[in-house]
Amino acid sequence: MDCGVCSAHLREKNQCLGCNLGPNMVSCLRCKLRTCTDRKGKYCYDCQKFPCQRLKHLDQRYRAKYGMSEIANLEFIKDNGIEKFMESENDKYVSDEGVFCVHDKKYYKKINKE
Question: Going edge to edge, which strands form the sheet with 94-95?
């Protein structure tokens, strides 16, 4: 998932840094996908079991609740790279109104941390 469109990452207080930048949320620390030992690389598509049952379950939930696919995102990254994926995500979710959060369907002001 693109952490940049997640409500836990976009909120001002107790902001989640994301799975790859130092997970600080209990749900991320306990995440079986993040801590999976079957995967040999950085992404789930680096696993012989891709997509595994756990990922399929998450994907089904995200398709139904948020209109996005974790599996499709991973396939896009595999085929095009993470940079192109992030460009695509910015095109979809970032506008003059801010960053659109897929979880609560609200816009958040852009936070420039550079």
Answer: 94-95, 98-100, 107-108
The CA–CA distances, whole Å, from 57 to 33, 60, 64 equal: 11, 5, 11
13 vs 111: CA distance, rounded Å: 13
Question: pLDDT tens digits for 22-32?
Answer: 656 666 677 78
C-alpha closest to that of 88 among 105, 72, 109, 104:
72
First-to-last alpha carbon distance for the chain, in angstroms, is: 22
The number of CA neighbours under 13 Å toward the Cβ of 14 is: 4
Round to whole Å and give the CA distance between 104 and 25.
18
Q: pTM (2 decimals)? A: 0.83
Average pLDDT of span 38-67: 92
Q: What φ, ψ does residue 80 adopt, rounded to 5°?
A: -120, -15
